[in-house]
Amino acid sequence: MALPMKFLRWLFPRGETYAISRALFLRGLGVIFFIAILSWWVQVDELVGSQGLTPMSEFIERVGEALDSQKRGHFSTVPSVFWINSGDVFIHVVCLTGVILAVLLAAGTVPGPALVGLWFIYLSLVNTGGAFMSFQWDILLLEAGFLGIWLAPWRRWHLAVRGKIAALTWGETAMLWIAWIVIAKLMFQSGWVKLAWATSEQPEWWPDHTALTFHYFTQPIPNPLAWSMQQLPIWFQKASLWPMYFVELVLPIFVFLGSRFRLVAALGFVALMVGIQLTGNYTYFNLLTIVLCLPLIADRYWYFLKSLPRKLRKNAKSTGSGPRPNPVTPGENWIAIAWRAPVILLLGFLNLHICLADWHRADESVPDPVLPWTHLSRDLTPDWTDALREKFYPFNLASGYGLFRTMTTTRPEIVFEGSLDGQEWREYDVRWKPDALDEAPPIVAPHQPRLAWQMWFAALEPAYHPRSRNAGWMSGLVRGLLENDPEALSFFEENPFPEQPPKFIRGALYHYEFTTREERKETGNWWKRERQGLWLPTVGKI
């Protein structure tokens, strides 16, 4: 017992506490849930409403019939509140409920029940949102939300950040460690994939180090600063990768080396997220990652920051100490650890399994890797562990991540064109997309215009294919344009056919790049483009 106790004393020196950090983290989750649900709510009718591109009601009916034929449970396979009702009114009621719960959580009120409701509501939205709800940050928010349920102080109805602060019980402290694992996993895996997926055909991250010479103009929705960053010299772009590698591959180790190292890791993670946020529109992802960094910061650092500007509490300034959270009785500790124990074991298992499986999957998936030592050649996950993980997969309790696994080196864009006679064609300008050459890149984060994002992924496919995961919503969008449907037209800046709908629609494929300083000075354009052909052949209404 001596060694574990010494380790715990080293891990939490001088009785280190994380009560304030826990409160800030959970409140921060409330803010992120508010942004995510509100952002989805304002476009839900156009995307999955009864008149939307991929109606939720049709999805629910189709999946329900398939599950019935296979004698599989609806909720266990696709957990969602929308099995009760998938009508437009009910969808809006669910979104409204989520926004209200998010406000309550951000205010620190009823944190446990609010998190349960938010997690289940967002899980329901993700599981019925199709391609529009398939992003890594949606899954990360679910993982963080589920973690927050068990980190919350269920014995209290308010999350105080001063005064009577709820101390962490043994069970909540164990969940704090899981929170550290999640942020370390997110950052390390994001760095590891860049090395593990490097091949002679995709050397941008390693060994060419040229990824950032493409990143700023090829990212889904650049912002104005991205254009300026693109103009910097190549040596700077190459050198910029090394701090990123340090943050993503080295600092995750700091998470497990004591409170001072955790503070350094948190500051490094936050700095990277701020840099990404400033140079692109990555929805709420960067804010969510910053919130996930909060549990890394011990309470004494918050007290130090509070005392510093007022020049009060000299003891706090010299030792980093501060008021202590309310003590927890031994009985409360044992109860808290007992009812959380199954979840602690489950999340520990899932996170370990995910990392081992991802490391081995790279060995099977990447031909001729530049850095083969980044792969795990042996499969360390037996079949029974794969089956166990599969049972919990629909609930998104834990997931693997690999942001920017590869770098796109060109920017293909689909530009819809309509015609009344098949001879004269007029372009549709998708909101938030760089269709018009003189249109400045927008600032839209933390809102995520889901169709604009999905258009970016669709353009990476060589051409339209009826079996593509994007075929359903793409067909709905084209059909809406042929009918001058208001829901479909809401995704575009203006309707080029206000008098009557076009008889023909096609999708032209262009390659876009940022202009140089000289080109912009001469033309006033932010973008330049070159036509590649047709992505979607000409179609008309039957």
Structure summary:
It is built from 23 helices and 4 strands. The chain has 542 residues and is α+β, with helices and mostly antiparallel strands. It has a 4-stranded antiparallel beta sheet with strand order 2-1-3-4.
Main beta sheet strand tally, sense and closure: 4 strands, antiparallel
Oligomer: single chain
| H/E element order | HHHHHHHHHHHHHHHHHHHEEHHHEHE
Total of helices: 23
Name the helicity range. Answer: 40-55%
Task: Explain the overall architecture.
With 542 residues, this protein is an alpha+beta fold. It contains 23 helices and four strands. A hairpin with a 6-residue loop joins strand 1 and strand 2. Helix 2 packs parallel to helix 7 and helix 14 packs antiparallel against helix 15. 40% of the residues are buried.
